[in-house]
Amino acid sequence: MASGSFYGGAAPYRSREGLSTRPAASSDEIQLRIDPMHADLDDEISGLRSQVKQLRNVSGSGDKTEAKFQKDFLDQLQMTVIKAQAGVKNNIRKLNQSIIKNGANHVVHVVLFALFCFFVVYMWSKVSRR
């Protein structure tokens, strides 16, 4: 095989007698040209198969790890949302109880303040016309 390259260097590549690569239309593709004059193709095909198997193992384990990480993250996020919903529901319940106990006095105070403000604006408009 070419020293230190996994078919990723400059084209054309040459691994051994019999197989060589040429650039394809897409940068992700490699086309192989097989020289039928050399009979050592079985070893080359076995080598290519082992490299493909290694690449599949690397990409497959990376996908599984990423999927597991995302699943764990989503599970944690879902638990956080459930806890937040429970907290909000509890606070709304406490607020409703507080309004029931003390709410009538607060509403009366707000209405009286609004009437007072309206009266002050009305009197100010009467005085300013003179």
Automatic annotation (TrEMBL):
Residues 1-27 are annotated as: Disordered. The keyword Transport applies. The keyword Oxidoreductase does not apply. It is a single-pass type IV membrane protein. GO terms for cellular component: endoplasmic reticulum membrane; Golgi membrane. Keywords: Coiled coil, Endoplasmic reticulum, Golgi apparatus, Membrane, Protein transport, Transmembrane, Transmembrane helix, Transport. GO terms for biological process: protein transport. The chain crosses the membrane at residues 106-124. It comes from the Eukaryota. It is found in: Endoplasmic reticulum membrane; Golgi apparatus membrane. Its main location: endoplasmic reticulum. Required for vesicular transport from the ER to the Golgi complex. Functions as a SNARE associated with ER-derived vesicles. Belongs to the BET1 family. This is Bet1-like protein. It comes from Erythroxylum novogranatense. The lineage of its organism: Eukaryota, Viridiplantae, Streptophyta, Embryophyta, Tracheophyta.
